[in-house]
Amino acid sequence: MSEAPVVSVTVPVEAVAPAIVDSPAAGQENVRTRWESWMHAVFTLREDRFFLMLAVVIGVFSGLVVVCFRLAIEWTQITLLGASLSPSFPRVVLAPTIAGIVVALLAIHVFSRVRGSGVNQVKAAMYISNGYVPFGTVIGKFFVCALAIGSGQSLGPEDPSLLMGAGIASLLGRSLRLSQEKLRLIAPVGTAAGLAAAFNAPISAVLFVIEEVIGTWSAGVLGAIVLAAVSSVVTMRAFLGPDSLFRVPPFRLAGPGEVLAYAALGVAGGAASLLLLKWIVFARPKMQALPRWTEYFQPAAAGLLIGLIGIRFPQVMGAGYAIVDQAMHGQFVWQLLLLLAALKLLVTGFSFLSGTPGGLFAPTIFIGAMLGGAVGSIEHHFFPGLTATIGTFALVGIGTLFAGFLRTPITSVFMVIELSGNYTAILPVIISTMIAYGISRAYQKVPLFDLLARQDGLLLPSIEERREMTSFVVEDAMRTDGVLVAEPGEHIVEVARRAEANPEAALLLRMRPGEWWLLDRDDVLRLAPDAARTTTPIHAKSKGPIPYLFRDQGLAEALQVMGDWPVLPVASRADLAKLEGILTLADTLHAFRKTPKEEAE
Amino acid sequence: MSEESPRILSRELVLILCVLALVVLLALTALFSRMYHKKIHTLADAMFAQGEADEQAGQVKAALTDYRNALAYNPSNPLFQLHLAKALAAAGRGEEARSYLLNLLSESPGSGEVNLELARIAAHNSSLADAMRYYQGAIYGEWHSDPIAMRWQVRRELCDFLLSRGAVKQAAPEVIALQENTPAGDPARLKIVAQLLLRTQQWNRALEVHRTLLAADPNDEESLAGGAQCGFELGQYVTAMEYFDRLPRERREQPDLAYRYDMTRRIFAADPFLSGLSAEARAQRVAGALALAQTRAENCAHQTGQSLEQSPPQTDLQRVYQQGRDLQQDWAPRYLERFPDRLDAAMAYVFSVENASAAACGEAQGDDRALWLLGRSRSVVNQ
Predict the structure, then answer these.
(1) CB A160 within 8 A of CB A137
(2) Closest Cα of chain B to A511: distance in Å?
(3) Are B359 and B316 in contact (CB under 8 A)?
(4) Taking CB atoms and an 8 Å cutoff, what residues of chain B touch A248?
(5) Angle A474-A477-A482 (CA atoms, 0-180°, nearest 5)?
(6) From the CB of residue A252, how many other CB atoms can be counted at a distance below 10 Å?
(7) Who wins on pLDDT, A460 or B205?
(8) Which residue ranges form the domains of chain A, and what is each CATH number?
(9) B182-270 maps to which CATH number?
């Protein structure tokens, strides 16, 4: 459904309304229409209302599936690696290796679409395949990712969860035969539901979808996304409990000096994000270039390497939330924290580059927490007066790496608050994430998801680029000269005289504040010689009323309003009788053609 | 646009199917969730039990691993967190324990147990202010089992901590509160309170507690020793001697009592005001005291290089000494025996000389010290 253009078009109500109200037949017709509308509203669901209701259903479905998915991962982990956080020697190597072979076989022969980023798959569904996400992918992601993550591969459940949400939404949308437009929008709705349930963080999920998937605060879909996210979290909490993902001891920012401590973390986080990004940028094409038969062994090889590292450092295996929780409680010395961050960065690369399905969110959280904890410990060593705990640094580190690596700064800030249930960290998180985000952007132009999409040959829209595209407004294109404004009582001779003096100027007639008409220059000039013999008022020769614009309106919006009118007035919002300029089609096109250099000038 | 067109039938059918699928999925999820939670709770409980067993066996490292495993399966369990924190603290990893405890404290600020653990960590880190804050939190916090006994125990720990840090002033009110919360029929706790009162030098209260203890067990050596000590410090040498006499000789000769016992004996030998003495014995004792004080003054003057006869007197010692010089004849033993009203003046002179000597030459020893102590106790009594 298209949105009604939000423009101030001056169509006098009286010009239309009396025609309906005054006629008895029209009145009867109106009553009938209203009755039908009422019946329609009561006994049927309009598409937009139905879409909102469907969002709740999607949320509940997604919540249930994500709960099952998380249980499946945990169960697989207990079965394959044992109940202890430190698996015994044969298991720690054999489980990820053998599971890697099974994962490869399933990914190649049974669920061919389970590989790759779930975020990009959702975007592809939205921008390429009209919202179509094959349900087989949902099933594949569920089983293959549960096996991979449960066996110790260094990947997380969030990315598969969001795709599962999108897949469920897509299936429901298709089954209910939604319109093409709604079908395209339904995948992000499911994405929000899946991610919200996986993170137990509805606000972050909504923000992530807006920031990374759809790229705009579209009112048409925002309500559905929020409803889906909330309903999925409610469903998930009914089964897994209301607790936040991590528990962090409360703290307060003692003084402005402590901000510097978080700024340092931002720098470290930005550097670590870059390292992880560059590692993937560098190695992924090389892995993709390997002979096809190696795909059968890549996940197993990654599993073997991870298992070997896991003998000494089992903390780096799997999603690692329990380890993050320990780090937040200051359970590791800074040397170990740094080592774990570096090893996790390495093994995550192994898992992801080998094509093992799974997400990068959890490893990012892990690396961020370890790095934050390490930076915090080091800073505490040199500045014992710092009031923040290691846990606070670890928490801020999560947001920092998230912003630097996934390039979703707003999501990162809110995610930290939601993951910890602790609002006190907001200022440090903002400072640290913005620094990391800035560093990441400065040294890695293409964001991760865009990069992965391009490496996979998909030309998906870059939300970051789109976010930063210059948005032209009427002010950029309008002219303040070249217009003559006539008043209704003005004599035509006078108008003609002024028109002759300004041969290029457009002629506008100001009937009353907020009502503009267009005068034809030729008509005015033709009638002027006979003006003494005619009583025709000037406004009789005008066309209108014509729409008018404001200087802050978007140019794209102005184009929609412009229609066939050659020129439109730009009025003042403070005084509708005041003309601030005019806009022509040529001016508009010229503005769009401006180069960035010209723009800067 | 087709969005306005009703698709009642097809959508309703699909929705009915959706609802059915939802019910099935809900049931399956509930089933899996129940099975999973049962499994992880069993695992967590088993690991926790193993951790407790390891801890009791003194294997702190193994206990830590077990508690961490248990916590991984039940992260929000406060009991697991508390035990892990306790084990960490026991392993000397106070900062790591502190983090869990702060988290627990944020969830239940009134928990006595959590406050106590935090207090112990703060005490270990010699953070007096934090320790006192958390100890107070523990004393006034919630305790699930036997809160009165737990609060008493925590307060006792606080007193011990403060005294170990030499914070006697802060400890004194806590010890008094402890005494007031100790039932009279609990000798074990009364003994602890009595010891703390001794350490905070609250002699009257300590004597009172020791008397209570001795009423229950008249031969309790610790109480007799405590009572004797209190009696001595309060200048109640009769009381002190009574308790000293009831103590075995070996106990009296132990370092903490030997000096006080010796002094008490000397005081008893020198005190002319003891009841039951004959007039002659009193006079003899006063004369002995006068001679001792005079010698002490002369030695002190020699030691400090001053002349006791200097006129006009420049020092307290000279002034005090010269005040009594002219009365020496009146204080001869035969006059003292005949005129017992002179005993007080003579002894006042002795005490003044001992005080002035102590001020000029430092603390006296032996019989001089006994006289000085006697003088102090007499002045307290007179006041």
Answers:
(1) no
(2) 36
(3) yes
(4) 103
(5) 110
(6) 10
(7) B205
(8) 47-240 (1.10.3080.10), 257-464 (1.10.3080.10), 474-600 (3.10.580.10)
(9) 1.25.40.10
Identify the residue among A182, A329, A380, A419 best suited for mutation to test binding to B, counting B beta carbons within 10 A and taking the highest: A329
Q: How far apart are CA A148 and CA A302, in angstroms?
A: 11
Residues B90-103: tens digit of each pLDDT: 888 888 888 889 88
Q: What does the pLDDT read at residue B320?
A: 83
Determine contact, residues A582/A506, Cβ cutoff 8 Å: yes
Cis peptide before A545 (omega within 30 of 0): yes
Number of Cβ atoms within 10 Å of the Cβ of A566: 12
Nearest residue, CB atoms, A179 vs list B2, B73, B100: B2
Quote the ipTM score. Answer: 0.74
Q: Which residues of chain A are within 8 Å of residue B75 when distances are taken between CB atoms?
A: 243, 247, 322, 325
Any idea where the domains of chain B sit in the sequence? 182-270, 279-382
Residue found under tokens 């962090």: A248
Q: Which of A78, A85, A175 sits opposite B68 (nearest CB)?
A: A85
- The mean pLDDT of chain A is 84
Pairing of strands A542-546, A567-571: unpaired
pLDDT at A22 over 60: no
The pLDDT of A139-157, averaged and rounded, is 95
**Using a CB-CB distance cutoff of 8 angstroms, which residues of chain A are in contact with residue B65?**
84-86
Asked whether the beta carbons of A415 and A402 are under 8 A apart, the reply is: yes
In the numeric block, the tokens 């007197």 are attached to: B313
Size of the A and B interface in Cβ pairs below 8 Å: 113
Check: CB of residue B191 under 8 Å from CB of residue B212: no
pTM: 0.72
The closest of A209, A240, A211 to A227, measured between CA atoms, is A209
Minimal C-alpha gap between B127 and chain A (Å): 14
Give the separation between CA A489 and CA A493, rounded to whole angstroms. Answer: 12
pLDDT band at residue A231, thresholds of 50, 70 and 90? very high
Residues counted in chain B: 383
Radius of gyration of chain A (CA): 31
Quick count: other Cβ atoms within 10 Å of Cβ A442? 10
